Amino acid sequence: MDVLHLEGVSKSFRGTQAVRDLSLSVEAGTMYGLLGPNGAGKTTTIRMIMQILLPDAGRIDLFGAPGTSASLDRVGYLPEERGLYRKMRVGEGLAFFGKLKGLSSREARRRGGAWLARLGMSDTAKRKVEELSKGNQQKIQLAATLLHDPGLIILDEPFASLDPVNVEIVRDILIERKAAGCAIIFSTHEMEHVEMLCDAISLIHRGHAVLEGKLAEVRKRFGSDTVRIEYDGDAGFLRDLPYVRRIDDAGHAAEIRLADPERAQDLLRAAAERLRIRRFEVTEPSLRGIFIETVRKIEGQ
User: Are residues 49 and 146 in the same domain?
Assistant: First the structure.
């Protein structure tokens, strides 16, 4: 069943089209990545789903029907800008958000305590939110998002301010929620998280979906003309090889798109002559490479 369905959704602000004829569906037990450059319309889309903004046109269904206040109570929303009350104590704040979602005071406090324990933050229950680090505030925001056991979880940059250990904790929680049948949609610029977690994606550019579908199928559409290489040395000469179409070089590691997939062995020989090769892999392009190529093609670069 589609937990979330958008059909032909559009939104303008003073003549500027923020979202244009956008359609997408997210099924139960699916993790869905909402991607796009800054200003693409991702946050506007999320705010329309949450009825913070109303669309100018189109339809948004939650749990198989037009969204209502009751269906919104089954949604957990983590905004990019934290929605916590900074002067409130952590335990009291979690209980407050739980009661807003229909939990009794006792149950809200019980669940808040359980989430703090899960996140290794039981000792923060009586501290004010403003006393916590940005990373710990993000974890509290996540607890508030999940406290009422939502069927749809919407996360706007969920990994912001988190160190690698806490990123792994949050990833594990999302994987558990997905396995329990939740639909999860999140917007992020961190492509490695999308590749690791998401079943499907929608790439939005200028308010319009320019690439959409299951992640494995999207990657197959771009073929196997990509080489990932890790090396020591100066790889600047690779850009001048006639069969190299595009290279994304981070220094000591690069993703190379070939004009002809059959030239991979030529690339290996050329690289081996001047570099110390630590890894050489012919594969499908990374999501980051697909993202950059798609946006550049639209922009005519």
Answer: yes
Both 23 and 93 in one domain: the answer is yes
Tell me the whole-structure pTM to 2 decimals. 0.85
- 5 and 166 in contact (C-beta within 8 Å)? no
pLDDT tens column, 18-49: 999 999 999 999 999 998 888 888 999 999 99
- Let me know: does 9 contact 57? Beta carbons within 8 Å: yes
270 domain-assigned:
yes
Q: Do residues 201 and 184 make contact, with C-beta atoms less than 8 angstroms apart?
A: no
Cα-Cα-Cα-Cα torsion 218, 266, 252, 247, nearest 10 degrees, comes to: -50
Answer whether 100's CB lies under 8 Å from 94's CB.
no
| DSSP conformational letter for 216 | H
Which of 199, 197, 187, 83 lies closest to 143 in space, CA to CA?
83
Nearest alpha-carbon partner for 186 in 18, 36, 293, 23: 36
